[in-house]
Specification:
The complex is a heterodimer of chains A (695) and B (567). Chain A is of the alpha+beta class. Chain A contains 22 helices and 23 strands. The longest helix of chain A is centred in the last third of the chain and has 39 residues. The chains are: A alpha+beta (695), B mainly alpha (567). Chain B: The system is composed of three essential subunits: KdpA, KdpB and KdpC.
């Protein structure tokens, strides 16, 4: 795929992107924006409170003691500073994630500039601004002009340059009727003239939606994200209760804990790591799709992609190359295979169709030497003769084509021997039985003697590596269903070769829709690709419907994703990205919560060390002083966010494997890792903090 | 050690360990038939004749299914009636027969007691044999011992139906579940158990107070009473409210080692069999086994920890005395007492055969921790299972994300609604415990009263006593850290409210969860689905349970028992 959208392959995280995101991080301090993230909002409130305390302290007779221990002069200010840093780091993560979409958005925006449209009104042309077009208007676009809005071609045929949107530089053909009628506003007509019926209001076009999506402006929280947010908010509430009740309870037996220490404890306990990175993870997930030239119309669709249990794949173009290819030469009547091969290739030399080319290629691979140019006169294929061929200079003729046509040609003077016909019949059968297409080759020499040389086996060739991908999908728990218009025999032969789990043969759009409904009734989540108008109902019904950009606007409307490359195999990548998104959320949540254990071991002994020296036993990290322990925990808490931003943007590595083994691995890395890492991190930070005067 | 219960030449530790092993073996044998029997009880289409009679009397159509809302309203209405009637019976005591001449308890005590028995807590702010006569004990308390356990069972079964059913708006019929739990399960089992208890020497009479001359030559007034019948359901229904103040430390309630082992078995029987019921009803017994395994792992860890700590006997007094025998019956010894204490607090029974207050400082933390776990290992009758399933929902949510699917448990999607309900359920008890304890010290007038009247052991231990009281009440356990005078207006009222909210808020949330699950269709399991029957998931569930508890209670434990034990 050629790309202008993601022109230079960007590293997921670099210093330049970080620097560019800093202003955004400050802008996001607006409490009205922060409110949407309850965990970080709490940190913001804590930051404001400690700042006020730090400013007021000198006038109130220096820092309070906490839990029976004197706190150093700069303690409150230090806590306040690091709380601000924590909030900013969280905003930075979101800002960096959004920044990645900005470049795409800017290049898209250039296509959106207002152009002059030529509107057809009662057969007359009038010039209007593209911004004034309405749905249903007819506009004429001639070569060299920009198409003023999204629509369908209702008249004419033209080649269109869509590189502004797809990044694909080769022009595409758009014509009225059929499945290639959709045009996108902002693309340029290169040849001919078309009349377009506008189907989208200005401001709600495909490009507008794309800009909104890549910028993250129209991002809605997905159900799973909402559920996770609720869990995080509930945990935060528990910790607020814990912190609010400490002093009243402690007051019976010990000196109260100062407010900065309580706020520090609260911030350390609430799941700030995942709270800070949650929205960045979501934006980055969408962005990973955009990098693969897929536009998801909602985050919900990306999430659903991770849940997909059934993949509906069209045979042609997805599982097979889409064109039949020669796979063997079957001689009859004692003909040498070499002779059959040579004649079959000779008739195909001038044949530009993929089938013809594949015969030449197969012959060459079998070591048959062929002339550079066609010797003799070509007899082209016609629908009437249903065969093509070659008249050689020596007067002999070669023909290849459908069995009945070639046999009829061969028998034009006298009937063929029945034994030969029987042998031919058997060869032809053997090809048909496996889903292939037989082509019969015959030759007539100068004297008029006819020989049937044999059969060329043409078959749908399954794409390289597709079988492995299906095996991978099966390991992920996803069933593949191949959908094709072929007859059952052909379909099953190819299905078996490709390794799909199920085949829907002789499929009509209605059957496809029916299949999706049946799968869904069984609780399955279905993903499919489609491009035609008659795919639209199925695309709409599927949980993940990926429309090809080359498809009709009806298909694009119905699906919840659009693939700009129009590559149906990308469905597999989409599923992967969906899973990766969910795993990243889970991993960072697990890590965040597991971190709390170490933070408790840092802060709890520090809080009451003054009154209960025995609690020093819990100071397993041997942190140097109570003040240093608390500050170190806060610093760790802030730094871990920055350290994890690349992971949040890149996503956790995902390999196709059973759920059990993925769970085991991720629990080990993020659960156990989350338990251990902060013990080490806090200790190291403490070694530095303890060098500060007073700590 | 009781003579005759175990051979005299066995070391008491070994005898206790053997006893526990016997109970474990019996549980392994018992949980299958009992679990399957309960599954059959709550799924069978047939009604017994006596049940049909009950339905006619209360005007219920046994075939009428209820939505979660209707189910919850029935539970609440039934419980309100329960609280009012127990309250009324106590307040009218002096006019009732067989009241042994005892006066009516105070308003706040009657409120506390009524709530306590209706919520399956059986917290007793009073000395039962000196406060309540036979009528109140039987007509009010014993009835609630049965029905409160039956309510717990009904809620658990309703939640199981939520998982088992597909696209229905209903989760069963509360009145049918309640009646069947009583008629088919609790009443027959209680009768059987009472007979066994009688055989071990537990008393059953209406003899009132008997004046006896003691061997030392003193005179004592000893109350008799229908103890065995109370005792059976006290343990079977994980109620815990004793006939006597000394509870299962009293020789009339718990005479010897054999009766003690039987009591332990009774407490664990239903809670450890319910996972089997769950597995059977959802059609995948491995799922039930996984839940039982998680309960079992926590159970074994807790029992071992308390046993080890008490045998070690850290602390000034135990070390001076040679062993941590303070507050423990010589009949039972250290280990048996520790096991009973663990079982009683791991289930929501709250019965005691030793005084938890007198455990070593760190040892005293364990019964508290057991309750703070949310009483899920194996927990109360019904409440243990639904508590553990709610934790499983949270564990699945995190585990499900980790395998790259939006989480689902038994084919049911866990979306915002389910997580809201599960998270709120988990939130209720810690909030009640911490807020209740904090308010006891934060309100100046209350604090003065608490310090002057209630706390007998000032300092950290007093703090632990108050914390224990609220932990016990909010988790509906009912055991007490003796040494706290709880029969005051503050504690009776505050603990009563904690018991009410700690019982019914989770119940309503759990029923809502059941309803939302029952309405869903089922997602088929694939290799991409998080397996919830493997050891890894059991580990995750145990981890989540411990982490949720530890994170919530670490600070307050550090202030109470930890500070006391480590100083």
């Amino acid at each position: 795929m050629s790309t202008t959208l993601d022109a230079p392959k960007r590293r997921s995280f670099d210093t330049a992107a970080l620097a560019a995101a800093v202003p955004g991080a400050f802008r996001k301090l607006d409490p009205r924006l922060m409110w949407r993230n309850p965990v970080m909002f709490l940190v913001l409130v804590g930051a404001v409170l400690t700042t006020v305390l730090a400013v007021a302290e000198p006038f109130l007779g220096g820092p309070q003691s906490s839990g029976g221990t004197e706190t150093p002069v700069s303690f409150t200010a230090g806590i306040a500073a690091w709380l601000w840093v924590t909030v900013l780091f969280a905003n930075l993560a979101e800002s960096v994630a959004e920044g990645r979409g900005k470049a795409q958005a800017d290049s898209l925006r250039k296509t959106r500039t207002s152009t002059t449209a030529h509107r057809l009104v009662d057969g007359r042309l009038e010039e209007v601004s593209s911004a004034d077009l309405r749905v249903g208007d007819l506009v004429e676009v001639v070569a060299g002009r920009l198409i003023p809005g999204d629509g369908d071609v209702v008249e004419g045929i033209a080649s269109v340059d869509e590189s502004a949107i797809t990044g694909e530089s080769a022009p595409v053909v758009r014509e009225s009727g059929g499945d290639r009628s959709a045009v996108t506003g902002g693309t340029r007509v290169l040849s001919d003239r078309i009349v377009v019926r506008i189907t989208a209001k200005p401001g709600e076009t495909f490009v507008d939606r794309m800009i909104g999506l890549v910028e993250g402006a129209s991002r809605q929280k997905t159900p799973n994200e909402i559920a996770l947010n609720i869990l995080l908010a509930s945990l935060s509430i528990v910790f607020v209760v814990v912190c609010l009740t400490i002093n009243p309870i402690a007051s019976y037996a010990a000196a109260p804990v100062s407010l900065p220490v309580l706020i520090a404890l609260l911030v350390c306990l609430i799941p700030t790591t995942i709270g800070a990175l949650l929205s960045a993870i979501g934006i980055a997930g969408m962005d990973r799709l955009v990098q693969r030239n897929v536009l998801a119309m909602s985050g919900r669709a990306v999430e659903a992609a991770g849940d997909v249990t059934t993949l509906l794949l069209d045979k042609t173009g997805t599982i097979t190359y889409g064109n039949r290819r020669a796979s063997g030469f079957l001689p009859v009547d004692g003909t040498a295979e070499e002779e059959l091969t040579r004649f079959a290739a000779l008739t195909s030399l001038a044949d530009a169709t993929p089938e013809g080319q594949s015969i030449v290629a197969l012959a060459a691979s079998k070591g048959v030497r062929l002339p550079e140019s066609t010797p003799g006169e070509i007899v082209p294929f016609t629908a009437q003769t249903r065969m093509s061929g070659l008249d050689l200079p020596d007067g002999s003729e070669v023909r290849k084509g459908a069995t009945s046509a070639v046999v009829a040609w061969a028998e034009s003077e006298r009937p063929l021997p029945s034994t030969l016909l029987a042998e031919l019949e058997e060869r032809v059968e053997s090809v048909s039985r496996t889903g292939g297409t037989p082509l019969v080759v015959a030759a007539r020499d100068r004297s008029g003697a006819v020989r049937i040389l044999g059969v060329v086996h043409l078959k749908d060739v399954v794409k390289d590596g597709i079988k492995e991908r299906f095996a991978e999908l099966r390991a992920m728990g996803i069933r593949t269903v191949m959908v094709t218009g072929d007859n059952r025999i052909t379909a099953e032969a190819i299905g078996a070769e490709a390794g799909v789990d199920e085949v829907l043969a002789e499929a009509t759009p209605e059957q496809k829709l029916e299949l999706i409904r049946r799968e869904q009734a069984g609780g399955n989540l279905v993903a499919m690709t489609g491009d035609g108008t008659n795919d639209a109902p199925a695309l709409a019904q599927a949980d993940v419907g990926v429309a090809m950009n080359t498809g009709t606007s009806a298909a694009k409307e119905a699906g919840n994703m659009v693939d700009l490359d129009s590559d149906p195999t990308k469905l597999i990548d989409i599923v992967r990205i969906g899973k990766q998104l969910l795993i990243t959320r889970g991993a960072l949540t697990t890590f965040s919560i597991a971190n709390d254990v170490a933070k408790y071991f840092a802060i709890i002994p520090a809080m009451f060390a003054g009154v209960f020296p025995g609690l020093a036993l819990l100071n397993v990290m041997q942190l140097s002083s109570p003040a240093s322990a608390i500050l170190s925990a806060i610093v760790f808490n802030a730094l871990v966010i920055v350290v994890l931003i690349p992971l949040a943007l890149r996503g956790v590595r995902y390999r196709a494997a059973s759920a059990s083994s993925i769970l085991g691995r991720n629990l080990l890395v993020y659960g156990l890792g989350g338990l251990v890492a902060p013990f080490i991190g806090i200790k190291l930070i403490d070694l530095v903090v303890s060098l500060l005067p007073g700590f | 050690m009781a003579p005759g219960s175990v051979p005299a030449d066995l070391a008491p530790e070994l005898a206790a360990a053997l006893g526990l092993a016997t109970v474990a073996l019996l549980l392994v044998l018992l949980h299958r038939p009992l679990g399957d029997f309960m599954a059959h009880t709550f799924t069978s289409a047939k009604d017994l004749r006596v049940e049909r009679g009950v339905y006619r009397v209360i005007g219920v159509d046994p075939k009428g299914e209820q939505t979660w809302g209707a189910y919850a309203r029935s539970v609440l209405a039934f419980s309100v009636v329960g609280v009012l009637s127990v309250y009324a019976i106590q307040r009218l005591q002096q006019w009732l027969p067989y009241s042994l001449g005892l006066p009516a308890p105070s308003e706040h005590l009657a409120f506390n007691t009524a709530v306590s028995f209706v919520t399956n807590t059986n917290w007793q702010s009073y000395s039962p044999e000196l406060t309540l006569g036979y009528t109140a004990q039987l007509a009010a308390l014993a009835v609630q011992n049965f029905v409160s356990a039956a309510v717990g069972l009904a809620i658990a079964v309703a939640l199981i139906r939520g998982f088992a059913r597909v696209r229905t708006g209903t989760i069963g019929n509360f009145w049918v579940d309640l009646t069947r739990a009583l008629v088919r399960l609790l009443l027959p089992l209680a009768v059987l158990s009472a007979i066994v208890l009688l055989a071990t020497g537990v008393i059953q009479n209406f003899a009132g107070f008997q004046d006896v001359a003691t061997i030392a030559g003193g005179a004592q007034s000893i109350p008799g009473g229908p103890v065995a019948s109370q005792e059976a359901i006290k343990l079977l229904g994980t109620n815990g409210g004793g006939f006597f103040n000394a509870n299962s430390a009293h020789p009339f309630e718990n005479p010897d080692g054999i009766s003690n082992l039987f009591q332990i078995l009774l407490m664990l029987a239903i809670p450890f069999s319910l996972p089997r019921t769950f597995g059977t009803m959802v059609g995948d017994r491995r799922q039930g086994l996984a839940i039982a395994a998680a309960m079992g792992a926590l159970f074994i860890a807790s029992v071992s920890a308390l046993s080890a700590i008490e045998l070690q006997g850290w602390g000034t007094a135990p070390e001076a005395a040679g062993a941590a025998m303070e507050g423990k019956e010589a009949r039972f010894g250290i280990l048996t007492s520790a096991i009973f204490g663990s079982v009683s607090t791991l289930t929501s029974t709250g019965a005691v055969n030793s005084m938890h207050d007198s455990y070593t400082a760190l040892g005293g933390m364990l019964p508290m921790l057991n309750m703070m776990l949310g009483e899920v290992a194996p927990g109360g009758v019904g409440s243990g299972l639904y508590g553990m399933l709610v934790l499983a929902v949270l564990a699945v949510f995190i585990g499900g994300l980790l395998v790259g699917r939006t989480p689902e448990y038994l084919g049911k999607k866990l979306g915002p609604k389910q997580i809201t309900l599960a998270a709120l359920t988990i939130l209720v008890t810690p909030t009640l415990v911490l807020a209740g304890t904090a308010l006891s010290f934060a309100i100046p007038a209350v604090r003065a009263d608490v310090e002057a009247t209630s706390i007998w052991n000032p300092g950290l231990h007093g703090l632990s006593e108050v914390l224990y009281a609220f932990t016990s009440a909010a988790n509906n356990n009912g055991s007490a850290f003796a040494g706290l005078t709880a029969n005051t207006p503050w504690f009776n009222t505050a603990l009563g409210i904690a018991m009410l909210l700690g019982r019914f808020v989770p119940i309503v949330l759990v029923l809502a969860l059941a309803g939302s699950l029952a309405a869903q269709h089922r997602v088929p399991a694939t290799v991409g689905t998080l397996p919830t029957h493997r050891p890894l998931f059991v580990g995750l569930l145990v981890g989540v349970t411990i982490l949720v508890t530890a994170l919530t209670y670490f600070p307050v434990l550090a202030l109470g028992p930890l500070a006391e034990g480590l100083n």
